[in-house]
Amino acid sequence: MGMSFDRYMRDMVQPMRDELTSLGIKELTTPEEVEGVLENASGTTLVVVNSVCGCAAGQARPGVAVALENQVKPDHLYTVFAGQDKEATAKAREYFAPYPPSSPSIALLKDGELVHFIERHQVENRSAEEIAADLTDAFNRYCQ
C-alpha cells in the first residue's frame, strides 16, 4: 500500500505553504487565479514565489514574515508555489519581466507594474533579516 508521489509531495510541502498563508498571504494555484488578481491590479501587490529549497525556508519565508510586521505593507499579498502549482507560477512570472524564472523570489508590483524584485541569488546570499530590510525599504518607498 504505497502513497502516490503527488500525494506525498502535497503532504510534504503543506507546512511550507502554511508558513506563508498563516501570514494572510493568499495562495494562487491556477493561471486563471493569477490573471484574475494581477491583470488589473490596483495599489501595491506582493507576490512570493515559494519553493521547497532550503533558502526559501531559511531566508525567504522568514524574511517575508518579518517584513510584514512593518507598519507600511502592500495592499495585496499573494503566493504561488514553484514546482507544485507550475501553471500558476508560469503565469505569475509573466508579470516579472525582464527577470528570468527564479525560485524562491519576491515581487512587488504597483498598479500592475513591477517595481521591486528579489531573485533567488539575492536570497541565497543574505539572511532573513537582510531580506526583510530590503522588503521593508521597498514597502516604505512604494506602498505609501
Automatic annotation (TrEMBL):
InterPro entries recorded: BrxB/BrxA
Sequence similarity: Belongs to the bacilliredoxin family.
Protein name: BrxA/BrxB family bacilliredoxin
Listed Pfam families: Disulph_isomer
Gene3D superfamilies named in the record: 6.10.250.2150, Glutaredoxin
